[in-house]
Design brief:
A hairpin with a 2-residue loop joins strand 8 and strand 9. The chain has one domain: Cytochrome P450 (Cytochrome p450), CATH 1.10.630.10. The protein is α+β, with helices and mostly antiparallel strands. The chain contains 18 helices and twelve strands. 49% of the residues lie in helices and 10% in strands. The structure holds protoporphyrin IX containing FE.
């Protein structure tokens, strides 16, 4: 796939479309082709500059002064007026962490790291085991969709529990989550935009009321940790900041991990000898998790916007340019990984992947995501070592520029 044009030294690509069918079905051959051709190019289909190689992407992540995070959550395509009106009435979220730059980002992140303490993450481990066991116990022999049965409900339950949302609200909260990815990262229809904007507004109002409740009566959860930080120093975090964090985390900690665990199960069952190795020695699972993050992460691309003109590998990217960094292409860059297109859970250096980013925005949920995937795989290896992917199923992936995971994953569950 060659860049089809060149303007003032910048390769222009009219064919690169992350919302196109071929890319959605399998972005990796396209990542490889563009990475081999050029370190950076302009993609007219999405009006973004695309960066393709590990070293350049790492440099972008480490330079927040030049590559601002402010576009991280913004809709890729303009919203309809109706959706904008709905949001104006009841959605008061503002940039808070993944879409915000220093110094504001530094302040908010510092307090969040307190809430994501190793003690709190470790305290979740028995809960992840209990919830995963409950979900797996409910599976009956025969054909089962593991997204529905396990990989969607497990991270949803864990992140809602972590934030502190009560159990009885979970079904309602989940019903508001549908299709959020399409809103900011895809090209939703006007009807879809209306529905998603309404759900986001409901969710936002729920978060505001929830944080007000915790402010009046803190308990032992992440939101109450933030409330206590505020009680000690009211200038540290506003109630709006805390509401933003609760809102943002319920997204960041959910679909990312659903998709990741789905990708993990799919890759392992597609490589039966590697699945068998894990079932024989569950000590291999942590290593396998890193290889899946390298090979088939749930966020193969992420966004930035330039604050000034910058040279990337000899390609001049202008100021205020929207940029797509291909994390998935970086993770298969032969300069950094031997035989990068081979999925190999025994690989020694998989952990050098960029799946969780790098630098000041490095994923704060990485320990939780790793733990959930590890426990889900461990349980499946114990309970269903003989499970098989249903043959000839068509995997369907949501059309968007950043997130990737199968919508459903059919397996034959042994009797
Ligand atoms: C396998 C699952 C996950 C993947 C692949 C993933 C990936 C990422 C990536 C690439 C970034 C960096 C974005 C940037 O540089 O701008 C990030 C940031 C972030 N992630 Fe994750 N994530 C996952 C799971 C989670 C979970 C479970 C949580 C919460 C419990 C979470 C919360 C966050 C937050 C809050 C940020 C923003 C951090 C900041 O801007 O300082 N993520 N994640």
């Amino acid at each position: 796939m060659m860049p089809t044009n060149e303007t003032a030294g910048c390769p222009v690509h009219h064919g690169f479309d992350p919302l196109g069918d071929a890319y959605i079905a399998d972005p990796y051959p396209i990542h490889t082709a563009v990475r081999e051709e050029t370190p950076a190019f302009y993609a007219s289909a999405i009006d973004m500059w695309v960066i393709t190689r590990y070293d350049d992407i790492e440099a972008v992540l480490k330079d927040p002064g030049t590559f601002s995070a402010q576009v991280g959550q913004k809709p890729v395509f303009p919203l309809s007026e109706e959706a904008q009106e709905i949001l104006k009435k009841g959605f008061r979220a503002y940039p808070v962490m993944s879409d915000c730059d220093p110094p504001r980002h530094t302040r908010i992140r510092k307090h969040n790291m307190t809430g994501f303490s190793p003690r709190r993450i470790a305290s979740l481990e028995p809960k992840v085991w209990a919830k995963a066991t409950e979900l797996v116990d409910a599976i009956r022999p025969g054909r089962v969709d593991l997204v529905n049965a396990l990989t969607y409900p497990l991270p949803a339950y864990m992140i809602f529990t972590f934030i502190g949302f009560p159990d009885e609200d979970m079904d309602m909260l989940k019903s508001w989550c549908g299709n959020r990815i399409a809103f900011s990262w895809g090209r939703p229809s006007a009807d879809e935009q209306r529905e998603i904007a309404t759900n986001m507004t409901n969710y936002w109002e729920y978060c505001e009321n929830f944080v007000a409740k915790r402010a009046a009566e803190p308990v032992d959860d992440f939101t109450s940790d933030l409330i206590r930080i505020r009680q000690e120093n009211p200038d540290s975090l506003s109630l709006e900041d805390i509401t933003n964090v609760a809102y943002g985390l319920s997204f960041a900690g959910h679909e990312t991990t659903t998709s990741f665990t789905g990708n993990a199960i799919r890759q392992l069952l597609s490589n039966p000898e590697q699945w068998a190795a894990i079932c024989a020695d569950r000590g291999l699972i942590s290593k396998a998790v890193e290889e899946i993050l390298r090979y088939d992460s749930s966020i193969p691309a992420w966004r930035r916007i330039t604050t000034r003109a910058v040279d990337v590998g000899g390609v001049e990217i202008p100021a205020r340019a929207k940029v797509l960094i291909l994390l998935g292409a970086a993770n298969r860059d032969p300069k950094h990984f031997e035989e990068p297109e081979t999925f190999d859970i025994h690989r020694g250096d998989a952990r050098r992947h960029l799946a969780f980013g790098k630098g000041i925005h490095y994923c704060i949920g990485a320990p939780l995501a790793r733990m959930e995937a590890r426990i889900a795989l461990d349980l499946l290896a114990q309970r269903a070592p003989d499970m098989r992917l249903v043959e000839d199923q068509d995997f369907d992936f949501p059309a968007n520029v950043s997130f990737r995971g199968p919508r459903s994953l059919l397996v034959e569950w042994p009797g």
